[in-house]
Amino acid sequence: MTNLSRKFPLTRLRRTRSKAGLRAMLAEVSLKKEDLIQPVFIKEGLKGLEPIDSMPGINRFGLDVINKEVKEIVDVGIKSIAVFPVINEEKKDSAGLEAVNENNLISMAIQQIKKEFPELIVIADVALDPYTNHGHDGVLDESGEVDNDASLLVLKQQALILAKAGTDVIAPSDMMDGRIGVIRESLEEAGFKNTAICAYSAKYSSKFYGPFKDAVESAKFFGNKTKDSYQMAINNIDEALHEVSMDINEGADIVMVKPGMPYLDVLKAVKDAFGMPTFVYQVSGEYSMMMAAIEKGWLSEEVIFESLIAFKRAGADCILTYAAKDIASRL
């Protein structure tokens, strides 16, 4: 038997990388239009649209033009939007009571959108920060701290109003303890048994949210305060798994990790541990820093697509990203 002396590798991984077709065929994960959710900001009293300075390419829309924008989103193949209200300042108060007004801006917007686009999946946040004059996600007690249980009473009313308006997926982002159970029970009792809940389960007290506060015009109210007493500490991952477990047990249909890129380890741990439908939010700061670098010519615009692939690789089923419309138009 001849003993051959090899001067070449038998295994050449570059063989399967040599052609674009092979690379596509053998891709371990892929990004589809159906994976993308476009956040949309709707501003009360606005005619037309206005740019958000800290979020290049993103606008606030008035009710008069929001359906035109939604049509463009639908036409590129996106199946879902997440809506966020920007209400008039004079309607903000310490208790966020405009959130439980059945004729508030977001309810009217959802009804208007669903009338023209009944198959579009509309996701709406449950939280009070767009409605409070202090910028917190709940109501405050006498000492100025967010009162968990008092907030739950308002949040469950807000969830019911959003469901009545036609919301497909209620998305509590407030991080109050027990809110998923309270909201699920309220929806069931009111006959909204098919209204899904996407829990912002692992929502970190992150500094990546800055441009979003500008977008919903809450930054001026919030100032230098923090949400550390109810959003998660950035150091923790075991706590995230505990939060997700609690939300699932209370009736969440979908769980979410927010922010995205700095928390890919959390996203993977959540998906591996629970196997639940898992969303991730590529938040405003992530989007804006990439867009700023792209505008400066420091990075290629392909970095956004690469970041979305990272979410899929880590286990995300769907991604909320401000780049959804643009990316979907290229897929």
- The name CATH uses for the topology is TIM Barrel
Question: What is the count of DSSP helices, taking H or I runs of 4+ residues?
Answer: 12
Name the helix and strand elements from N-terminus to C-terminus, one letter apiece: HEEEHEHEHEHEHHHEHEHHEH
Query: Which radius of gyration do the C-alpha atoms yield?
Result: 21 Å
Helix content: 25-40%
Strand proportion: 15-25%
For the record, the count of structural domains works out to 1
Mean pLDDT score: 93
CATH-defined superfamily: Aldolase class I
Strand order of the largest sheet: 1-4-5-6-7-8-9-10
* CATH class descriptor: Alpha Beta
Tell me the number of strands.
10
Task: Tell me about this structure.
The protein has 331 residues and is α/β, with parallel strands linked by helices. It has a single domain (32-330), classed as TIM Barrel (Alpha-Beta Barrel). It is 37% helix and 16% strand. The chain has twelve helices and ten strands. It has an eight-stranded parallel β-barrel with strand order 1-4-5-6-7-8-9-10, surrounded by nine helices. Helix 3 links the parallel strand 4 and strand 5 (121-126). The longest helix is centred in the middle third of the chain and has 18 residues, at 148-165. The radius of gyration is 21 Å and the shape is globular. The mean pLDDT is 93.
Jot down its keywords.
alpha/beta; globular; TIM Barrel; 16% strand; 331 residues
List the helices and strands and how they pair.
Layout (H helix, E strand, L loop, with lengths): L19 H6 L10 E8 L5 E3 L7 E3 L4 H10 L4 E7 L18 H12 L4 E6 L21 H18 L3 E4 L6 H11 L6 E8 L6 H6 L3 H4 L15 H13 L3 E5 L5 H11 L3 E5 L1 H13 L5 H13 L3 E4 L2 H7 L1
Parallel strand pairs: 1-3, 1-4, 1-10, 4-5, 5-6, 6-7, 7-8, 8-9, 9-10
Antiparallel strand pairs: 2-3
